[in-house]
Amino acid sequence: MSNLVIDLISGGLLLGGGVIGVLGGLGLLRFPDFYSRLHAAGMTDTLCALMIITGLILQTGLSLLTLKLALILLFLLFTSPTASHALAKAALSDGVEPLEQSPKNPDADSADQGASSSNT
Questions:
Q1: Total domain count for the chain?
Q2: Which segment of 12-26, 48-62, 93-107 scores lowest on mean pLDDT?
């Protein structure tokens, strides 16, 4: 019974990590500027690695492989946010400006104009 529970939790973590990885990849394609994309990549990298490696740790049981996976996870949890911060700081010092506002939606502009003209 306990093996079934561990397998279900592990499978859920592995599946969740994969889904988060795919959603993070979509975020890289959809976000408008460098900093938004960097945030999506950094968050996805950290959370995806955490879930997948935790799922693998549950599958391996207590062994030397568990220790190796835990060390890899610890390394990733320290280096991924640090690398994202370093990239953002380098881009800012290089003159890459963050996007001040989200891109305008043409449908929202026409709806706003229609609402403002009916009030006058």
A1: 1
A2: 93-107
